[in-house]
Design brief:
Layout: H1 5-21, H2 23-47, H3 56-86, H4 92-95, H5 102-117, H6 120-127, H7 129-134, H8 137-170, H9 175-181, H10 187-193, H11 195-202, H12 204-218, H13 230-274, H14 289-305, H15 307-324, H16 331-347, H17 349-356, H18 359-364, H19 369-383, H20 385-425, H21 432-453
Helix pairs in contact: 1-5, 2-21, 3-5, 3-8, 3-11, 3-12, 5-13, 6-8, 8-10, 8-11, 8-12, 8-13, 9-10, 14-15, 14-19, 15-16, 15-20, 16-20, 16-21, 19-20, 20-21
Length: 459
Amino acid sequence: MFSNPYMRVHRRRAAHRRRSRGPWVGWGRALLSLAALGVGAILVRGVFLDFLGESTAVVGQGLSGMVLRLGLVLVGMAAIDMYGALLRSEDRDILAILPVEPVAVVLAAIGRLILRRVWVVPACGVLLVPVALEVGIWPWLLAVAGLISVQVFAWPAAACTLLLSVYVSESTRWAPILDLIRGPNPREQAAFLYAPGIVLVVSALILFASMSAVAGAISGHSSALLLLLIGPAIGVGLGLLVPRLARGAWLRAAVVTTEIDARWEALRDHDEASRGAVYLDWSVRFFPPSWRRRLRHELRHGWRGRRAWLMAAWVLGLAGAAAGWTEAATGPVRALSVAVLGVALVASVTFALERDEPPFLRWWLPDGPGPRHLLRALAVLLWVQPVVVLSAVPVGLFAGLEGFGLALLVGQTYAMALAFWAVVSARLGALGPVVYAVVALASGLLLPLGYGLEFGGPS
């Protein structure tokens, strides 16, 4: 890996970026990241680690459940990140037309991804620090080891699945199945759409092994520690298959993705010619005429360029509804906790929107900073509505109309404040995402705690 020429280029580019930004940017981001993780650990302790202080068996079961939740996050991130690294990277358009060695390119892409995400498991360990402080260092080490086992498996499993999906997308044998499950998408894209789900299904065995290892070792069964070796062992085996799969799949993927993009462009042109509307375009009519053109521009920018963020709002809203779907007194606090985190994640789309616009466009098409940023914040507020409203629904069902109104008021106030803060943070450069994360996590911690302590939750 260290002799890989593409990795050498990556290291040189990274060194140039560090020198151009200066040392203070890196140190500042590191300190702010630690602060954000500290706030996140307090939030996790209050919402997900309420089993601490119970018996050993209860702690073991609760901690294994946390390993499952965080493990699912790790596997999902690995699958989505690997798709971007192997099939949709910025370097692909350049390298695909050159006489490159596909195996070296794929290994370099995986190596860059690992270096970029190596902090995720340590960050999860920081979120679980309350376990070490209240129960002991041994259960905390077991949980971190379980997450490492899942992560070591997830990266090669995601790489193999996505490389295999290239062959599946062109296979005539799989064509009937892809036509059955593709919905309105092109047939070839169905293989890529379901690849993350396949990775999650395959990872079920590793997740179960890590959970069982944590619960068993905490209960005194030291032999359960052997289960932690299953993930790395299978991961190493899958890693050995990556070069063989990459040799033919990486170059063929360029043809497949180009065909998919061409079909979507044709569909989009036809759709815009017939309707001329996008997601939430109908809401523009309720605003002043002087706002409508810019607001429509922001809505179309988000829908066409960053649609995944917008659709994630519905998924996160359903997650908030599921978290609050209980008659327990903690139900509203759980729903609000998921809602504020979901709002923070969806509102972070402003950083992607800011990067999408080239600097020269602001000089060629100036429109004044005030209305532009105000209307972008308004668009973000519209996009996060599914998170706020869906999370408040179970509160209304179990706590009545008063509880629904209170949850909706708190959620909408937080959404408005965070939408404007996201737009402001996006203008801060490299420190913007970290500053945004610190404020989002801090407010996301204080809101559920204040909701639960000051109001006692709706009853």
